[in-house]
């Protein structure tokens, strides 16, 4: 088995997880949580999203969160930005990295950001240019790279077109999103074989959802192709607000557990991770769905 | 990716699933459930266990279940037997296949069947001989092939010793059990590379538990080595009664879903499978843990 020695995990729970919680989490709890996450050995945390509160009211306190957390110098604190206005707020909040996003499928892009794919490019181009000029790292999320809830199976040529365009704008990393969590290991294998011919996999992260339990299998296939960066959400919090049935990001704790068991380093301390997951579980007042937290909760009964 | 065209799934829910349910299921519900399972296209169902009711009271109606189900000629109806007495009951009940079992680790074997490994061999030898003479198929479960809850990591030489002995007794198939659900994909890969050198993988099934969410990843690795038979429990019912924290057999519905998505045939109808899972969910009066059933239950809210 061709496996890496080290994998980088980007924690997206405070953004991708919390944006899907019906319950509004008080800012101070978010801050405490992110501070706990900063103690785990994670190298990157996406702390919030600077989108209009009309769209994601759960994250309306992004600026306050960014201003209140204790930042560790070695850590990258990232935030999602949809446009120039969001970028300005993110720059004011002085995050280390901004993440732009669009979809590889036309209808998901339209429903998610109210623009066609071609209308989205110039908006993101401005954001990326400004962010790079301000010395920020820039990440580009490509959603629905395997399947779209509206358009069905995504054309891989369309994925390449969007990815290539984002890379040419100057983004530092692509994050390829299995937004619905429907990708199977064979599909991931075939996509990576195809992408490899046209894109460098070096700056590519994979973002899997665990809707049908296939995320860890997809991680293993991705590692065999040389992917070493994965997004995950602690405890399995969150999903996609615009995709019905797309519940459950891949859980950071389950991913770290598997990687460590396989002898792959992440730099993350599992006990500290569990402490952070346990904290958010208490704040939410409901069990988190990761296997790790299910076992912990069961042991406590 | 080296993948098979067809995979055989052996349904173990009525035995491995129900033996772990605290709630006693009425015989008629078990019979209805097995009849529903017979309509799904499954080729093999383990319907119960002829062990002493002192050990597994939930399955004390094995003979009644075997006598009451409607049997389809193309289907193999199997039952677990611990010893000669259990075998006689299974022969009287006229099941098609009997399954003997033991552990690859000494302490699990001792706690599970109250004998050392060496004391177990002659008992099983008699069972296998009699069963074969009576024209039955015989399956041999080897538990704790990766890890034992008492002895830690299992020596692969011990796994080979037990497996080889069972094969020499004349069993038709080995089922290698990740009893704790702790095996990771690298470990499965390494074990299969090693086993291949000494055993034929043709008569080998893998039996994964999904305790830490790695079962489907382990299935993919196993298929890449040529394994084409897997045990699973509909809805993710069950685990190991003698292993703390070992919750959750791999769910048949999640396995079938992944295989079909990968273009691998199973002969199983997903809608019929869901109907059977839904029935047992109603009987148990609690949600089944498979991803498939979680999604179904969510859609209904």
TrEMBL record, chains A, B:
The keyword Amino-acid biosynthesis does not apply. CDD domains: DRE_TIM_HMGL (cd07938). This is Hydroxymethylglutaryl-CoA lyase. Keywords: Lyase, Metal-binding. It comes from the Bacteria. The keyword Metal-binding applies. InterPro entries: Aldolase_TIM, HMGL, PYR_CT. Pfam families: HMGL-like.
């Amino acid at each position: 088995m061709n496996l890496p020695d080290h994998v980088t995990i980007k924690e997206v729970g405070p953004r991708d997880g919390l944006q899907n919680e019906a319950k509004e989490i008080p800012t101070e709890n978010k801050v405490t949580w992110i501070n706990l996450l900063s103690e785990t050995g994670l190298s990157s945390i996406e702390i919030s999203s600077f989108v209009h509160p009309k769209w994601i009211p759960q994250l309306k306190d992004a600026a306050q969160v960014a201003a209140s957390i204790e930042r560790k110098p070695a850590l990258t604190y990232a935030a999602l930005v949809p446009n120039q206005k969001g970028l300005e707020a993110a720059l004011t909040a002085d995050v280390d990295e901004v993440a732009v996003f669009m979809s590889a499928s036309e209808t998901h892009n339209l429903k998610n950001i109210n623009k066609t794919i071609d209308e989205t490019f110039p908006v993101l181009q401005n954001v990326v240019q400004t962010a790079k000029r301000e010395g920020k790292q820039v990440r580009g999320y490509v959603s629905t790279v395997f399947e779209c809830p509206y358009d069905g199976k995504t054309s891989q040529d369309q994925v390449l077109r969007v990815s290539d365009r984002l890379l040419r704008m100057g983004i530092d990393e692509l994050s390829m999103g299995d937004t619905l969590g429907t990708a199977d290991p064979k599909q991931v294998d075939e996509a990576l074989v195809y992408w490899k011919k046209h894109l460098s996999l070096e700056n590519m992260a994979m973002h899997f959802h665990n809707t049908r339990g296939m995320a860890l299998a997809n991680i293993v296939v991705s590692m065999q192709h040389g992917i070493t960066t994965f997004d995950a959400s602690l405890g399995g919090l969150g999903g996609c607000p615009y995709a019905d049935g797309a519940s459950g990001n891949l859980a950071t704790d389950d991913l770290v557990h598997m990687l460590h068991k396989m002898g792959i380093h992440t730099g993350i301390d599992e006990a500290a991770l569990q402490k952070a997951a346990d904290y958010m579980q208490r704040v939410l007042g409901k069990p988190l769905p990761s296997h790790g937290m299910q076992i912990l909760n069961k042991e406590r009964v």
